[in-house]
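Lab manual, section 2.4: Encoding a predicted structure.

Procedure: take the sequence of the chain (272 residues), apply the prediction step described in section 2.3, and record the output as structure tokens. A sample record is shown.
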Amino acid sequence: MPLGFIGKKVSEALTQTITGVGDVGKATIEATRSNLVEGLKTVKEIMAEASSLAGDTVAGAIQAASKVGAELGTTAKGAVIGSIQAVGEVTTVTTGVVSDTIRAAIKGTSEVGGDVAKVAQGAAEGALSATKNLGVGLEDTAFSVARGAIQGARDTGTDLASVAKGTVQGTVTGTKEIGGDVLDAVHSTARGTIKGTAEVGGDLAMVAQKAVEGAIEGAKSVAVNTEDAASAAASGAVEAAGEIGESAVKTVKDALSGTISGVKVIIKSPFK
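Recorded output:
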């Protein structure tokens, strides 16, 4: 996916800026925010173009990081924060903007041969951090992040399950950073991964399992009860499956029966 004019500006600016910089994340936030704000102010239909310009900005940042050998997960987090903040300065941040920004991060990472699962984690953290004070609810953000990540994985032929796992991990750590309800965020992210996977014809069972694994690993890293996190993810996955059909419910429930990563998975009804 060739970069547009904003993506090229960001890539050029960051290629010069982040080489040898101690705080790559902070430098990325500022470069993406300032360039995108400037770019948005030049277009006529801001709402219509916000998503594509934000995505282009994130892709440009990832390309720059790849060129100079910067850590892609950290860069993705900073680029997503800066891009969403920029949109919020000029217009309204919608769940569509969030989803498209995450999708662009996944696609951009695949194109440079980076670790897509790691970037999914960083991008999820960034989205949750950026939307905290912009009027987009935590659960809506988490759901949109998950769908965008799955769509980006589909676009590039990347393994959906590994992206789902990284996204849920990022949701856990990102929500913890902003003092949000981790279990609610995990529930919504798992819902988004299953809905997104069904939309692209992916393997529901494998994605459900990896989403729960991501919840467990994320919970361990932030001292959240792993059984509660696994239950929240499993319940969200089954809830989403219920919106798809009976066959999907059976597939997801069968995939999540027993233990995952040494944790007994309990699916709660009505799924929260």
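Check your result against the sample. The beta strands are 259-260, 263-264.
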